[in-house]
Amino acid sequence: MLLGRFQPFHYGHTKVVDWAYDRYESIIILIGSPRESYTYENPFTGGERYLMIQNTLRDMGYPNFAIVPVPDIHRYGVYASHVADITPPFDVVLTNKDLIKLIFEKEGYMVESPPLFNLDTLSGTEVRHRIATNGDWQSLVPDTVASVIDDVDGVQRLHKLYEIKD
Amino acid sequence: MLLGRFQPFHYGHTKVVDWAYDRYESIIILIGSPRESYTYENPFTGGERYLMIQNTLRDMGYPNFAIVPVPDIHRYGVYASHVADITPPFDVVLTNKDLIKLIFEKEGYMVESPPLFNLDTLSGTEVRHRIATNGDWQSLVPDTVASVIDDVDGVQRLHKLYEIKD
Amino acid sequence: MLLGRFQPFHYGHTKVVDWAYDRYESIIILIGSPRESYTYENPFTGGERYLMIQNTLRDMGYPNFAIVPVPDIHRYGVYASHVADITPPFDVVLTNKDLIKLIFEKEGYMVESPPLFNLDTLSGTEVRHRIATNGDWQSLVPDTVASVIDDVDGVQRLHKLYEIKD
Amino acid sequence: MLLGRFQPFHYGHTKVVDWAYDRYESIIILIGSPRESYTYENPFTGGERYLMIQNTLRDMGYPNFAIVPVPDIHRYGVYASHVADITPPFDVVLTNKDLIKLIFEKEGYMVESPPLFNLDTLSGTEVRHRIATNGDWQSLVPDTVASVIDDVDGVQRLHKLYEIKD
Amino acid sequence: MLLGRFQPFHYGHTKVVDWAYDRYESIIILIGSPRESYTYENPFTGGERYLMIQNTLRDMGYPNFAIVPVPDIHRYGVYASHVADITPPFDVVLTNKDLIKLIFEKEGYMVESPPLFNLDTLSGTEVRHRIATNGDWQSLVPDTVASVIDDVDGVQRLHKLYEIKD
Amino acid sequence: MLLGRFQPFHYGHTKVVDWAYDRYESIIILIGSPRESYTYENPFTGGERYLMIQNTLRDMGYPNFAIVPVPDIHRYGVYASHVADITPPFDVVLTNKDLIKLIFEKEGYMVESPPLFNLDTLSGTEVRHRIATNGDWQSLVPDTVASVIDDVDGVQRLHKLYEIKD
Questions:
Q1: In this prediction, does ipTM exceed 0.90?
Q2: What's the pLDDT at E82?
Q3: Distance in angstroms (rounded) separating the CA atoms of residues E75 and F103
Q4: Is there contact between F and A if contact means ≥3 C-beta pairs under 8 Å?
Q5: What's the mean pLDDT when you consider all of chain A?
Q6: How close does chain C come to A33, measured CA to CA in Å?
Q7: Which strand ranges, in their side-by-side order, compose the sheet holding A27-32?
Q8: Pairing between strand A92-94 and A110-112?
C-alpha cells in the first residue's frame, strides 16, 4: 500500500512503484485528499489523478494494482481504520512520512520506507512550479501524465492558480 | 460508467459488464455507499467489494477498467458533479435506475439502459438471502467473489446480520 | 465498557451496572447518539442523559466510572476505532446487541453478554410509553433520574412528542 | 464549567481546579478538539486526555466532576448551544480566553476568569516542548498524568511528532 | 418567522403569509431541507423553491420579506441556535408543528399558530400527487409557482419520481 | 450573481451593485462562509450580514434581488454545482476573484469582472481595522449597515476580536 496526493503523479512515484513491484506481487495506491482541487497545492481533481496513475501503471505493464481515493477525515487516531474499511486488504505500508508510519504502526501494520529518489527535482512541488512558470516539467512526468494534464488544460490552470496564490 | 452497491458482486453484474464491453472499450465501475457495511442490506465493506470486482474483472480478462468508491453525499442535485469530481472522465452512464438516469441526464450525460438479466434470482437481495439461510448462493456469484466472501467470514456475518434484522 | 442510548437511564441499566461491578473494578459507560433529542424515540439530550447516569452511579456508591458521549458516525466498519479514539482504554465490551458484538469482536475485543433483566418492563420503550401516557414510570427509574426528568420538564416533553409521533 | 484542550493536563490546570472548588461545589471539564491527536500541537487522543483528567481529579479527592469531550463544530455563533446540548447544565463558565468569554456571554452565561498561574512554564506548549526535547516535564504534570503518558509511549510519540513538525 | 419545506409553495402558504402580514410588518421565510431534491417527497431543489417564494411574494406586493435556506443539522437541541445564526433576527415563530414549537419555546421564542386552511387539499402532499397523476394542480398554486414548475420540467420530474417511488 | 463574504457590506459592494443593475435586471447576492463569525476576519454572523445587505438594497431602491447564504463545502471541483443547487438560476457570474472565475467558467458559466473601486480604502479588511481601532469606519459603509453593526454591539465585538488576534 502506497499513499500520496500525487499532485501530479511523476517519475519519483514511478520509481517507488518499480521498487515496490521488485518486492511485492501487487500494490494498492491510495489517493489522499481526493476532494481537494483547483488550488496551487492541489491543482488536480481526484478523478484526474486517478486517470494519471491508472494510465501510467498500464503503460508500465503492471497488471496487479488497485487505485483507491481515500477522503480526508482529519482524525489521525482513526485514519488507519478508515483506510482499511474502504480499501482491499494489504500487508505492508510503504511510506517515508513519519506520521503515516506512526499511525499505521500503532495499529500493528508493517511499514517499510522506500528509498528516496532525487527529491529536489522529483517532487510535486517542483513539478507544479515548473508547470506554473513554463519550466521543463514534461521531463519529470510520464508521457501519459503529460497527456492528461494537457487534456484538462492543466498548464493554464496552474498558471492561474499560481497568480492567485501570490 | 456503471454504478451499483454490489452487495455482493454477482453474475447479474458480470452479464452487464460483458454487455458493456461489447459496446465500449473501457468501463468505470462506481461503488456506491462504500462506507456502509455490517448491515443485512449492506453486509460488505467498500474494500471487500472493491476486491470482489477487481478480482472478477481480471479473471474475465478485461484489462481496461477503473473502480472508484463514491461516498454518499445525500444531495441528488449535486450528485452528478460529485461523481465527475472523483472519477476519471466518462461519456455514457449505464443504469436501469430511473433516479440515476434523471440526475445524470439533467447534467447532459448520455444514459443507456442495459438489458435485465434474470432479476428474480440474479439480485443482491436474493444472494444475501441465500447466504443467510444456507441456500445455494455459490452458483450466483463468480468463484473469486465466493473466495472473498469466505476469506472475510462473510457467511457467518450474514447469518448474524439476518438474526439482528428480525 | 457498556454502550447504550439510555433514553432514559432505568433500573434495567442499574442492574447491568451492579452485575458489571461484581466482575470488574471500573466501567466506562458510552452514551450513544448523544446529539439525538426531542424525538419520541430519543427524547433527552446527551447532556441530560449524562447527568442521569452520573447522579445515579454516585448514589449507588460506585466511584470508578467514566461517562463518554460517543457521536454517531454511521460507519460500522470504523465504529470500534472511533470509540477507542475518544474513550479511555477498556478490555471488555458488555453488550447483548449482536451487531455491537460483531463489530467489536472483529477488532479483537473481548465481548461479554450481561444477563437480561425483565426486558418487558425494564426497557426504554416501556419507560417512555409510561411517561407519555401517565403510567407509573417512576418505579422503573432511580429517584435521581426521576428528578432530572422533572427538572427538564421531561413529562410534558414526552407528552408532546407522543402526540407528534401519532 | 472549564474548557480546554489539555494537551496534556498539567499543574496549571490542577491549580485552576483547586481555585474552582474553593468557589463551586461541582465542576464540568470540557475536552475541546477531542478528535485531534497525533500532531505536535495535539499529540494525545481524546480518550487519553479523558483518562489523565479523571485519574488526576480522583487523586486530588474531588468527587463531583463531570468530564465531557466536546467535538469541534467550527461555528462560534452556535458553539454555546452545542456545548449546552451535550453537557450537564452549568451556571458559570471559567475561562481566560476572550473568545470563549464573548460567545458564552452573548448567550447569557456568567463568565469568570481564574487567576493565571505561571504561564511561562505551566503551559501545554512548554510541557510538550520539554517532552519532545528530553527536558524535565515530569515536574509540570501530576504523577498520574505522567503514568498515562508513559503507558501510551507518549514520549516517543512526541519525539517523532517534533521531528515531523520541523 | 415561518418555516417550511415548500415542496412546492402553494395557496395554503400564501394564506399564512397574508395572515402574517395582517399582524407583522415583515416576515422571514425559512426553507427547510434546502439540499433535498429529486425525491418524490422533496422534488424541487432549494434554489427552485427560493424562486417560487420570491416571485410569489413580489406578485402579492409584499416588500418586506427575507428568504433564507436553512440546511438540516439533525440536532433538535441545537436547531434554534442554528437558525438564529444564519437568519436576520426575528421575534415570533409562526408554526403549527408541535416539534418546532417545542424547540423554539425552550429557547425563549414566542410561538404563534396560524389558522389551518383547507389542509386536505392545500397541502404539499396533495399538490405533488396531483402533479404526478395529471390532476388539477394548477388551481392549488400561484401562477408564478406554476411557471417555475413548468420551466424546470417539474411535471415530468414528478411523473418519474412517482414511478420510482412505487 | 455576485459572491462575497461581506464582512461587512460596504460602499465598495454598493458600487458593484449599482454597476450590475446598469447591466442586468435582477441580481443574486451569495453570502459566502455564512457560518463563520466571531473571528477578526469574519466578525459578523450570516444572519447579520443578510440583514445588512437586505436593508441596504431596499434603501437603494432595488426591488429585484435575492440573497442566498451559501455554506462552504471546501470542494472547488463541486462548488459551482453546489451553488446552482441552492440558488435561483443565474446567467452571469460577477467576480474579480480568479479562482471563482476559473471554477464557474469550467462549468460553462459566463463570468464578468466588475471594475475595482478604491480597493485600498473600500475593503472589508480596512473597514474591520477601522472599527477595531476607533477609526472613521462609518464613512465606508451605508447608514443601514452602521445601524446593524451598532445594534449587535459590533464595535465592541471587533475590539475584542482584535485583541484576541494579537
A1: yes
A2: 97
A3: 33
A4: yes
A5: 94
A6: 19
A7: A65-70, A27-32, A2-4, A92-94, A110-112
A8: parallel
